[in-house]
Amino acid sequence: MKKLLIAAAVTAALAACTTTSPDVIQKGDAQRMSQVQDATVLSVRPVVVEGNQSGIGAAAGGVVGGVAGSTVGGHRENAVVGVLGAVAGAVVGNAVERMSTREEAVEVLVQLRNGERRAIVQAKGNETLVAGDAVILVSTGGKTRVMRAPVVVPAKS
Do the Cβ atoms of 35 and 139 come closer than 8 Å? Predict the structure, then answer.
């Protein structure tokens, strides 16, 4: 029983490891050329990125609930309570997975130098962006992140 609970906790923890943070680069994006565009922040607003429902939480919860339920009652009730425990465990496991993978984020509205506007949602990172900030949009593999534009120091001649 303890092993099943530990397995369920590890599974939920691993499911929570995904992020949309601008400070975390996916392994597949390393050493790839990215497109960079200059922009200015128009607005930033807090949003929530909905959590995952991969089924891992429901499966783990169902197993734990089924095992726990089957140990309750007499011989006849074991099967019925086991099934009810599995259903309840699956519901709880799904909710735990969804809530544990939910992420606080920001929606950043920017204006490109050519006047076009874009909106990008990303997890809160180490930088706090505000309206008027000069930023760059870094696009790699179909994903874009917003970060403060580096200060360019003119070369000495």
Answer: yes
The C-alpha angle with vertex 64 and arms to 62 and 70, in degrees rounded to 5, equals 95
Residue 118 lies in a domain: yes
Handedness of CA 129, 131, 137, 141 (dihedral sign): positive
For residue 132, is pLDDT > 70?
Answer: yes
- Per residue in 84-110, pLDDT (tens digit) is 666 666 666 656 655 566 788 999 999
Amino acid type, 128: T
The reply to whether 153 falls in a domain is no
* Cα distance between residue 153 and residue 57, in whole Å: 51
Whether 28 is covered by a domain: the verdict is: no
Q: DSSP strand E in 1-86: where?
A: 35-49
In which domain, by residue range, is 124 found? Answer: 2-18+33-148
The structural domain count of the chain equals 1
Identify whether 25 is part of a domain: no
State both tokens at 152.
């360019």
Query: pTM for this one?
Result: 0.56
